[in-house]
């Protein structure tokens, strides 16, 4: 079977940060606590989800007042599940690659090879200031993240690892035990700027991007895949989407409208002004949030733009259209996580698999 015909994968955002995935005062039956999250992880793996992605925040950026730490929280979810892979978000700066490589190697053993990392590069200057971390310029942050990834890969795969970078140094370091997963736990990264794409092409296994239209995502994929091919590499692609699946399209659209109508304008605008430190500040101005409207920002990773809002059939068709332009994974967020992950598993996922089977048959 060719790669294009592999089943598309599904992840969900771990709500380890309070306030859910939308900056709205609409009632959300989602909790950031561990009991809720353990139950959610179990429901997700039983519903056919492949991955869960945790978030890292050191301070509140947009009313997300409480934030559990991502690596410890990811481990708790792995301990509560059997098949689900959990991706822990980590931020170079606060994390040093020696500690991260060791933490993740141990968690890989504890979870029987189910942990992965999402290396994020930082967008919130106030957060770095609050914890006494230097704030680097946009492309410098990516230069550091690339060294960080090269370092953790080297530690995970080599004995007597030595490295001379501008940010990190290693001298004949041998990590024992190495991770169970070979060659190493999967490395995801989040961000959409030119620097993010170039880094993905050179060192990451997966490129995660904010929500976007099919055309917007295709342009990114074509760019990354061409650059990766020039490096003799392949990079898998994950795209964010806020899913509102309801029995009728009207119901789904009404929920979206209510989320936006009840948005917290002060928090959305505060977030909008902070993210100018991210994509808009990249030299080419193409990164995440560079073109986001107020409504887009209500879901803080542009998840409405992907338009997985409608009936199960409409959503399944749009997912297959994303797959057709090269998307390997859809990262999903919801208003009421547990019940909506269950609904998605029951009503949307089987339709996606049916459409994929038809495509496979047609291509055979
Ligand atoms: C799927 C995804 C997950 C992310 N998770 C986090 C996170 O947990 N913590 C964080 O500080 N930034 C997170 N980010 C933000 C990115 O690391 C990056 O700072 C931001 O997208 C701006 O990068 P750009 O200028 O390359 O677009 C995430 C981004 C994406 C796309």
TrEMBL record:
It holds the Pfam family Bac_luciferase. This is Dimethyl sulfone monooxygenase SfnG. It comes from the Bacteria. The lineage of its organism: Bacteria, Pseudomonadati, Pseudomonadota, Betaproteobacteria, Neisseriales. Keywords: Flavoprotein, FMN, Monooxygenase, Oxidoreductase. NCBIfam families: LLM_DMSO2_sfnG. The gene is sfnG. Residues 26-328 form the Luciferase-like domain. One of its GO terms (molecular function) is monooxygenase activity.
